Amino acid sequence: MLSIDLSELWQNALSIMKKQVSKPSFETWLKSTEPVDINNHTMTIRVPNAFARDWLETRYYNLIKNALKEAANLKVELSFIFPETGEQMSESEINSSAPPTRLNPRYTFDTFVVGNNNRLAHAAALAVAKSPAKVYNPLFICGGVGLGKTHLIQAIGNFALENNPGARVAYISAEAFTMELINAIRDDRTAEFRSKYRNMDILIIDDIHYLAGKERTQEEFFYTFNALYEANKQIIVAGKQAPKQLPALDESICSRFEGGLIADIQPPDLETRTEILRKRAEAENVHVPGDVITYIADQFHSNTRELEGALTRIILFASVKQSQITLDLADEALKGMFI
User: In this predicted structure, which of 213-217, 234-238, 266-270 has the lowest mean pLDDT?
Assistant: First the structure.
């Protein structure tokens, strides 16, 4: 046994199995595996995650055994390990294989203003951040444009990384996920794509409504979702509508979302809009009189983005004119913006 070149043996076995399964199956389940050792007539094989382990044990166990026998007349039992069982991944391995988090460090729970319009969503997000995959999995945040969905779901990722720097967290929009998949298919790198996203501890997908009508991407997302869920990893999704209201989204995906918690965010009330403006002025280290804040909050009702845009415009206008911020200046700066 000791004289066997494991790497060469495994490559020969893979070549045999590649001819016996479909290309997508091979790239998804077999290509990313590697042998660890042979001991007591048992070969230990490293796989990406628990879902892959379970799949190989139930679907491909005999296929692998027969391939090893054909490749080197080797009769062994099989044992599958992944990074959380058996040998742990080193910090350098984690950093080299994990995609960029894409998280905006400004999006934290501390900078998120809680009001009656978003209290449930905030409470759910905070609970998930504190105990990933233990409560509300998946978590689906829905609401209109500019209401703070992106802020809240990224706050989960930032909180998780602050408390566990080794966690594998990825935030990506559904559009970027789609484009990355298209490029992976074009460049024959689908196995690498799958391994990247199916090995996350927390996967955050924004603007899920973008997947409507994109059957190939929906299928890939569905299998990614299943892999993560079965491995007890956290999935967080945001969209402009509740799952059943999203057009052309596969029923199987909607069913997965509905198996967790769906929390919506409504437009902010006056008190919340006022607090959002005060917090933003504080973050910009700019003094904005209370009557100006109230004036802005009275004029812009629909979403947070409009509020912050109006305040930014006033601050810039005052800076250009080298004037203090007053109600008259605010009125002049916002001419043409009222809805």
Answer: 213-217
Q: What is the pLDDT of residues 142-180, one digit of tens each?
A: 999 889 999 999 999 999 988 888 889 999 999 999 998
Asked if residue 113 is part of any domain, the answer here is no
Can you tell me the distance from the alpha carbon of 279 to that of 7, in angstroms, rounded to the nearest whole number? Answer: 58
Answer whether residue 99 is part of any domain: no
Residue 112 lies in a domain: no
The structure's pTM equals: 0.67
